[in-house]
Amino acid sequence: MDERLQVARLSVASNTVLVIGKVAIGWLIGSVSVISEGIHSGLDLMAALIAYFSVREASKPADESHHFGHGKIENVAGTIEALLIFIAALWIIWEAVHKLQVGGAAPEVSWGALIMALSAGVNYFVSSRLMAVAKKTESVALKADAMHLRTDVYTSLGVLVGLLLLKVTGWWLVDPLVAIGVALLIMKASWDLLHQAFLPLLDSRLPEEEEEQIQERIERHAAKYVNVHEVRTRRSGAERHIDMHMVFCKRQSVEETHEISDTVEKEIQELYPKSSVLIHQEPCNERCGECKLGNNRGNR
After folding, report:
1. How high is the pLDDT of residue 281?
2. Rounded to an integer, what distance in angstroms lies between the CA atom of residue 280 and that of residue 245?
3. Is there a smaller number of Cβ atoms within 10 Å at the N or the C end of the chain?
4. How high is the pLDDT of residue 161?
5. What pLDDT does residue 245 have?
6. What is the domain partition of the chain in residue ranges?
7. Weakly modelled stretches of the chain, pLDDT under 50
């Protein structure tokens, strides 16, 4: 089975168990911070399911209806995940503010502390596995899922500290205030994920660092062409799309220019294996003064 699907299933399974545990314990002990973590994990579960199905669909090859493949499904999934998390954060704040207004007794914290510690440990392990596979396969959906779970690690630890403080002081205000802090962290994670997942849907260019690496591969062969212009880049899921216009001396043979183009394409794909490179070959105008003749033809 595809490694991406294996870790996506692991995420679904772990989140299912944690959602049930957090919500049940939070409800029994009357802790809004623990319940908020349960809702957070519920969103993580939904995100894990979206990630699983999006990775499965994105791995399908290009077909008659999708000539450029299905990679953007991962970006759509990541955008949906980010919006769902933001909505959950608003709900947590609403519940916490309501508890601050009406007041309440301090909840029993023992079972809540136990489920928070367990949640932090499990999610740290699963998020590490997800991130490792996401980096290896450059999966946007798995990276989003990993970031969700890593945020859950920190928020679970935050709730754990809040519950321990509550046990020591007996101040019931600690519980809703910690829940609000959790919600704010969730909102920050939501914004980061939305920025990462949504921009590729607008065909935004690759990061500057990646474009510089691509340019370096092109310039390795500068002596064999006149110039390169209109270099365009974009990303679709785990795939990168790069196209450019490469100008050659008009006296170079078609076979020679094709060989040079293939070499440039191969080196870019060695840098980024999941990339599609399109090079449009153009003859130069001798009047430009850059076309060299004789033994040095094609040099700058």
Report:
1. 87
2. 5
3. N
4. 78
5. 92
6. 3-202, 208-296
7. 67, 293-300
User: If residue 227 lies in a helix (H) or strand (E), which one and from where to where?
Assistant: strand 227-236
Residue 259 CB partners (closer than 8 Å, separation 6+):
none
Q: Which residue has the tokens 């980024």?
A: 272
What span, in angstroms and rounded, lies between the C-alpha atoms of 187 and 193?
10
DSSP string, 21-35: HHHHHHHHHT-HHHH
Q: Cα–Cα distance between 236 and 202 in angstroms, integer?
A: 10
Residues 43 and 185: beta-carbon distance below 8 Å: no
Q: Which two tokens stand for residue 5?
A: 């699907």
Residue pair 200/76 in contact (Cβ under 8 Å)? The answer is: no
How far out from the chain centre does Cα 162 lie? 30
- Residue-level pLDDT at 64: 60
Query: 186 vs 96, 114, 158, CA distance in Å?
Result: 14, 22, 12
Alpha-carbon distance 43 to 83, whole Å? 10
Helices (H), 103-173: 110-137, 140-169
Q: Identity (one letter) of the amino acid at 164?
A: L
**8 A C-beta contact, residue 286 and residue 249:** no
Matching residue, tokens 């995420």: 11
Distance CA 274, CA 86 (A): 31
CA–CA separation, 86 and 111 (whole Å): 27
Neighbours of 124 (CB within 10 A): 17
Identify the three-state secondary structure at position 275: strand
CA dist 54 and 63 (Å) reads 17
Q: What is the CATH number of domain 208-296?
A: 3.30.70.1350
Question: What's the pLDDT score for residue 300?
Answer: 41
Architecture of domain 3-202: Up-down Bundle (1.20)
- Residue among 148, 133, 147 nearest 55 (CA): 133
| Identity of the residue numbered 288 | C
